[in-house]
Hints:
Blueprint: E1 7-17, E2 23-33, E3 37-41, H1 48-55, E4 63-68, H2 77-80, E5 84-87, H3 99-107, H4 116-122, H5 138-149, E6 156-160, H6 168-183, E7 187-191, H7 195-201, E8 204-209, E9 212-217, H8 219-224, E10 228-233, E11 249-252, E12 255-260, H9 263-277, E13 282-287, H10 291-304, H11 308-317
Parallel strand pairs: 3-7, 3-8, 5-6, 6-7
Antiparallel strand pairs: 1-2, 1-4, 8-9, 10-12, 10-13, 11-12
Helix pairs in contact: 3-4
Keywords: Antibiotic resistance, ATP-binding, Nucleotide-binding, Transport
Subcellular location: Cell membrane
Domain ABC transporter: 9-235
Amino acid sequence: MTDTDQAVIEVDGLRRGYSGGFEAVRGISFSVARGEVFALLGTNGAGKTSTVELLEGLAAPSAGTVRVFGLDPYRQRAAVRPRTGVMLQEGGFAADLTVTETVRMWSGVTSGARPAAEALALVGLTGRASVRVKQLSGGERRRLDLALALLGRPEVLFLDEPTTGMDPEGRRDTWELVRSLQAQGTTVLLTTHYLEEAEQLADRLAILHEGELVLSGTPAEVTATRPARIRFTLPAGVAPARLPLSLRAAAQGRRVEIRTERLQRSLAELLAWAEASDVELTGLDARSASLEEAFLEIAQQRRAGGLGDFDDQMAGAR
């Protein structure tokens, strides 16, 4: 195993319980390789933030182990913390300080901190340096959170919902920053509700549901197990029953949707039939499954207790 393949985050049988008997994390295991972007996904209450807090060393696990750089982030926090950057869901800033004053205050407790101007330039806040924190928008506060997480040039960066509240431009800029940090060797673990964000950034991902790790893999592995779809509208007078029987078609009036595991073959068959039948397919749209579609279907199957088939598909994909 090379340095770039070595796991810098290792989680084994991790559990986290709270008073009253509630268990937010229920025996999950995964690892993150050096230089990898790894996304934790899940609905609200799935256990994402509870897991990340254990990785950050903010609490001790109820059971199982966490290792960051081979160290216990809770008991050996003094050795781990200087090498990590943490972006929490909420920063808790002093409202009356300016942006620059806030960064300089954090710099005072950060080993080897970047200059404040450099940190603000990274996240696009140079023009807001003299503005008081209370005057920032929600998206700008998230950028300030990110600037503070990057102060110490971290080897591992934890991002908890990093682009919440940002406008589309801010979100794209943050994605580019994460990519550039990865190119420089930074390992990134992020949680997000934006599935496009995970699809764009993550090398691998894990989906949590009610504290359990349902599956992990690359975005391509997850989406490849879901059928692609072809949608179109038939002309008046052409019944869906005329479509080739080999195409699994469902119709609502003249609007038709075909689900298929072989998109190219099914689309070629459909187009050949349309050409031979002199039928124009209006609004034709063919695409592979998105991570969002896969995630929603997995969540529905999990609630219904029918995830066994998906596990079998994932095993086949590997």
